[in-house]
């Protein structure tokens, strides 16, 4: 579980990032969750964008991705989810 200071730091780091995944009409599935998990292992901090065609709400999608990847939801803004998962590399010192 991240503290509020850690979340604030990660939000500031994520500000410059572009979303690298888009969730569309199929919603969040295992195949997409595996791809997101691989990206989290490599980068630790990523953004995921929900398209208007997504059948899930942004909160439902964030919870589903978090459950499937065991990542922390740092912040949700609009249709964008910021996710963090610590890796062995330790890119972000929190």
Automatic annotation (TrEMBL):
SUPFAM superfamilies: YhbY-like (SSF75471)
RNA-binding found in the keyword field: yes
UniProt keyword terms in alphabetical order: RNA-binding
Domain CRM: residue ranges: 1-94
Example GO molecular function: RNA binding
Highest taxon in the source lineage: Bacteria
Record has Ubl conjugation as a keyword: no
Pfam families cross-referenced by the UniProt entry: CRS1_YhbY
Family matches, as InterPro entries: RNA-binding_CRM (IPR001890), RNA-binding_domain (IPR051925), RNA-binding_YhbY (IPR017924), YhbY-like_sf (IPR035920)
Name this polypeptide is given: CRM domain-containing protein
UniProt lineage: Bacteria, Bacillati, Bacillota, Erysipelotrichia, Erysipelotrichales
């Amino acid at each position: 579980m991240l503290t509020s200071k850690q979340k604030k730091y990660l939000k500031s780091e994520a500000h410059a990032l572009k979303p690298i995944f888009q969730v569309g009409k199929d919603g969040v599935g295992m195949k997409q969750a595996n791809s997101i998990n691989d990206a989290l292992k490599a980068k630790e901090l990523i953004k995921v964008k929900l398209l208007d065609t997504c059948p899930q709400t942004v909160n439902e999608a964030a919870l589903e991705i978090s459950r499937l990847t065991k990542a922390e939801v740092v912040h949700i803004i609009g249709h964008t989810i910021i996710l963090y998962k610590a890796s062995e590399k330790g890119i972000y010192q929190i």
